[in-house]
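Structure, all two chains, one model.
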Amino acid sequence: MGKFSKAGGREMPELNTSSLPDLVFAFLFFIMMVTTMREVTLKVQFRAPQATELQKLEKKSLVTFIYVGQPLQELQAKMGSETRIQLNDQFAETSEIQDYIAQEKSSMKEEDQPFMTVSIKADRETRMGIITDIKQALREAYALKISYSAALRME
Amino acid sequence: MAKKGKRKTPPINATSTADIAFMLLIFFLITTSMDTDKGLARRLPPPVPKDQKDNADVDIKKRNLLVVLVNSSNQILCGDQLIDIKQLKDKVKEFVENPYNDAHMPEKVEVDVPYFGKMMVTKNHIISLQNDRGTSYQAYIDVQNELARAYNELRDDVSRKKFGKAFMDLDEEQQKAVQQIYPQKISEAEPKNYGEKK
């Protein structure tokens, strides 16, 4: 101990941290570029089906999501375990899809509206009946560009 | 000014910038998601006007039509044969390409394609995909995926032969030309209700 308190003793040189903020900022900007704001809290469980011929969705702002799956475990007591549709933050019926799409469409810029894409994020165990209903509703709402969300299959 | 012992402006204490930046970083890490959304892109047909629902059947020659049916136990019927998912791609490729000009396969029409000149193209073929309400989504996606793969492989073949590149690496004009040779025509039929559970 005495060693350190020696008068005029050598001191440990301080680590230069002046560039640390720059590093962190660079990292921050990277994160901001590659991520998107999470808009909805999921209320349904879903595991995406797998496929190999995937295409990326181009512009996030033009994409509307429809989630399909069983309600989350903690919601099942209230909602039952029947497959449900989630639009934005709440459960919905197929009849509400048309209004929802119309509403989303009107909130877009006019020149973007023809490029609107609807991404169907459905659980892989879902029965096609409900998907067919959704597809019919989308047709009626003139949202004709759709994407079946899927994960890449590793082979 | 230049008196002895020049004064320096005291440096601004910047030690806490790192902390601020870290806080921002953590905020963004929590509120954003990184998932790049991928999927099978499809185009739905426009809705049928309500007053002409009955005579909506368009006249399609039988040889131009390939019906792919997926039933509620996820079995696949292609044409009139029960087949495995692994065979589907080759079936579809053969149907779309019609390499031997078979009379039971889609007819070929001469089309003037940029870069290629006159080509015999099975322009009028249609793959009709039908499913049951009880089909599982994964099985449906599998079928969609196989169809997409058949088209992608055909397009890749022809672009490799012509341009020496994969279809994805071609420029837009060339892609359009290749698409003209193998137009993707998947029709998802009007849903029919075969009863059974939803």
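The longest strand of chain A covers residues 63-71.
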